């Protein structure tokens, strides 16, 4: 058992042909991805972040291990991967970090099959499916599914803190000012917050309340992550 595990985890990539050796490396990558996600969640616990991002870290760890199996020491495959990802980067618009991971997953599966390594594709599919299922039903941060972006345009001379803070304190549990910039050639100020609404408050209620505040010209509320 010890010899098999040593060969499975430390043998050169080009020598890995058995499905059990491939699976062993992907399982270790799965565990390593969880550790990375845990460290991220601990280090960013005071910041409002999307609940899908820790899951993305796990998926990316598995996918990088998968791609490494496919490429090995083949320089042509490495350049092929760079070209494929360049097309994805500039031709595909994605709103969620996890969407990026799934696109890379599709590229990696295609490469592994095209390189004559369907076992790598199959084992990786099982690993990614397991990780995706876990994060679907057990998100890293349940509350972060309600994180949203609040964009408010104020008239020139209005202080965002003085105008918006009373309303935000009443309707949100957490808020984080992320952007302040001028608009309309300096005639207005745009501010953007990440907010976490109170459970009993709806987006429409918050928007209506802010819209009643003197000096507010425009309000936009949009969810940062998906609920599904």
Instruction: Tell me the count of domains.
Output: 2
**Radius of gyration in whole Å, from Cα?**
23 Å
**Helix share bin:** 55-70%
Q: Quickly give the structural class.
A: alpha+beta
* Number of separate strands: 4
Mean pLDDT, to the nearest integer, reads 76
The main β sheet shows up as: 4 strands, antiparallel
* Strand order, sheet with most strands: 2-3-1-4
What overall form do the CA principal axes indicate?
A: elongated
Organism: Anatilimnocola aggregata
Keywords: Membrane, Transmembrane, Transmembrane helix
InterPro entries: DUF4956
Protein name: DUF4956 domain-containing protein
Please outline what is shown here.
With 228 residues, the chain is of the alpha+beta class. Helix content is 57%, strand content 17%. It contains eight helices and four strands.
Please explain how this structure is put together.
The chain crosses the membrane at residues 22-41, 48-68, 74-90, 102-135. Keywords: Membrane, Transmembrane, Transmembrane helix. It holds the Pfam family DUF4956. This is DUF4956 domain-containing protein. By secondary structure, the protein is α+β, with helices and mostly antiparallel strands. 57% of the residues lie in helices and 17% in strands. The chain has two domains: 2-140, no CATH class; 146-223, 2-Layer Sandwich (Alpha-Beta Plaits), CATH 3.30.70. It has helices spanning 2-10, 19-43, 52-71, 75-91, 97-114, 118-137, 160-171, 203-211; strands spanning 147-155, 172-183, 188-197, 216-223. A four-stranded antiparallel beta sheet has the order 2-3-1-4, covered by helices on one side. β2 (172-183) and β3 (188-197) form a beta hairpin. α3 runs parallel beside α5 (97-114) and α4 runs antiparallel to α5 (97-114). The protein starts with a helix and ends in a 5-residue tail after the last strand.
């Amino acid at each position: 058992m010890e010899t098999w595990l040593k060969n499975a985890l430390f043998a050169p990539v080009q020598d890995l042909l058995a499905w059990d050796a491939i699976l062993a490396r992907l399982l270790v990558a799965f565990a390593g991805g969880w550790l990375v996600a845990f460290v991220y969640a601990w280090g960013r616990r005071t910041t409002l972040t999307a609940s899908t991002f820790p899951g993305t870290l796990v998926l990316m760890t598995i996918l990088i291990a998968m791609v490494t199996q496919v490429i090995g020491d083949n320089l042509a495959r490495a350049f092929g991967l760079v070209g494929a990802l360049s097309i994805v980067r500039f031709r595909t618009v994605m709103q969620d970090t996890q969407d990026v991971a799934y696109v890379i997953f599709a590229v990696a599966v295609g490469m592994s099959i095209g390189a004559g390594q369907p076992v790598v594709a199959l084992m990786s599919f099982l690993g990614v499916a397991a990780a995706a299922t876990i994060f679907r039903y057990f998100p890293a941060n349940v509350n972060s599914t309600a994180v949203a972006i609040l964009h408010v345009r104020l008239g020139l001379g209005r202080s965002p803190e003085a105008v918006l803070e009373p309303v935000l304190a009443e309707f949100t549990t957490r808020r984080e000012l992320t952007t302040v910039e001028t608009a309309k050639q300096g005639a207005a100020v745009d501010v953007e917050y990440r907010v976490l609404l109170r459970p009993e408050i709806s987006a429409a209620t918050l928007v209506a309340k802010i819209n009643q505040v003197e000096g507010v010209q425009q309000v936009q509320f949009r969810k940062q992550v998906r609920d599904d």
